[in-house]
Amino acid sequence: MSFDWLKHYMPRGLYGRAALILVLPVAMLLAIMSFTFIQRHLEDVTQQMTGTVVREVRMVGDQVVGAETQQELIARVRPFLTSLNMKVRFPSPREVPEADGVRFFDYTGGVARDTLKQSLMAVRAIELLPDKTALIYLDSDLGPIELTISRRRLTPTAPHQLIVTMVFCGILMTAIASLYMRNQLRPITRLARAAKAFGRGQNVTYHPGGATEVREAGNAFIDMRARIERQIEQRTLMLSGVSHDLRTPLTRLKLGLSMLDEQDAEPLLEDVNEMQRLVDSFLDFSRGASEGEVEKLDPQSLITRIVEDAQRAGKPVTLLPPEGEGSAKLRPDSIRRALQNLIDNAVRYGSRAEVSVAFTPKSLRLRVEDDGPGIPPDQRGEALKPFARLDPSRNQNKGTGVGLGLAIVADIARAHGGTLRLGQSERLGGLCADIVIGR
């Protein structure tokens, strides 16, 4: 039997699941104990107490036999009334209620009523008054008889005390366990926040704490973060150094070519410019995805400025109307670099590009579409890897590039806690690149 449907009703957070683990067993234990107590203890005790009253009522009823008047009956039972703590009177027929006066939530009162009616056929009605008094109405040859006794002789006093005590103890134990569990869960949530921040390019202060296993996981995370930071730093230094060292000979080549005949120097100068673009790509990749500080801003305004700058540069780019509105926490410089790379790719492989922004309650989507050849579905994952080269037909007469454009965009999207998705444009038929970032 599958219980997958329960997943939709289970808490998703660690604190919610821990609370469920604590509260559910306690609640089930209290429910079972309460049911057992009510069914077995209260019911048995009430039946025993009511059985004693039944015998006393029968003794009073035996005195009716042979009595010719109501006064004679009262005279006969008077010696027993004091010891039985009972009162007897003959009410008028109009004073006798037609139905029992037992409240529906009075469980012990219902048990006493049922026991009396099953044991005494002459019982006509029973009333349990708020002042802890019980009235029992009997039929007799001399007319209806009203017996007044104390409610405490029929049912236990304050039967709910045990249940209240159990509930109070359960709540107290749950509160104590919750405080202890919270202290154990806090280090896990701190570790999760630190890992999430590091995934977005932020280095927050974190000190391992909690149980031994949590401390080991925290120390492993710190070691992993240090290794990744060293790797990124080494990559940045290597690419920056190589790119910087290449700039000097490229500059000398440009100066040398400027002294040659323009017609002879043109193809060589084009190669030098291509090398310059490759060096710039290396520098962009070496800077990483965490350039600039996180700011809360209006993405639509930022995208508008980026598109206007591209249009001034002569690129066929169009900005579509936004879908929704709102703000998001972004690194403006990184987002600008990512959008510029996507726009450059779009106009490089297609004749025009369209940029759009869409807001949802939980995410922000930045989309760039083109009318170029696109990327086949089986090559989209490979296209996001650094230095990846796709089918040569895609690069025909477009320059080979270095394969870092989409990798840089993917790094920037991950640094914002989002992702880069590649697909086919339904509007233009080419590539559709979406940067999806959580808000």
Short description:
With 439 residues, the chain is an alpha+beta fold. 54% of the residues lie in helices and 13% in strands.
Task: Supply database-style keywords.
about 450 residues; alpha+beta; Beta-Lactamase; Heat Shock Protein 90; five-stranded mixed beta sheet; rod-shaped; nucleotide-binding
Walk me through the structure.
The structure is a single chain. This protein has helices at 14-62, 70-84, 107-119, 161-199, 212-258, 262-287, 299-312, 332-349, 380-383, 405-415, and strands spanning 87-89, 123-128, 133-138, 145-150, 295-297, 317-319, 328-330, 353-359, 363-370, 419-424, 431-438. With 439 residues, it is of the alpha+beta class. Its EC number is 2.7.13.3.
Residue-averaged pLDDT, rounded? 81
Number of strands: 11
- Helicity, as a percent range: 40-55%
Round the Cα radius of gyration to an integer and report it.
43 Å
Strand content: 5-15%
Blueprint (SSEs and pairs):
Layout: H1 14-62, H2 70-84, E1 87-89, H3 107-119, E2 123-128, E3 133-138, E4 145-150, H4 161-199, H5 212-258, H6 262-287, E5 295-297, H7 299-312, E6 317-319, E7 328-330, H8 332-349, E8 353-359, E9 363-370, H9 380-383, H10 405-415, E10 419-424, E11 431-438
Parallel strand pairs: 6-8
Antiparallel strand pairs: 1-4, 2-3, 3-4, 5-7, 8-9, 9-11, 10-11
Helix pairs in contact: 1-3, 1-4, 4-5, 5-6, 7-8, 8-10
Membrane topology: Multi-pass membrane protein
Keywords: ATP-binding, Cell inner membrane, Cell membrane, Kinase, Membrane, Nucleotide-binding, Phosphoprotein, Transferase, Transmembrane, Transmembrane helix, Two-component regulatory system
EC number: 2.7.13.3
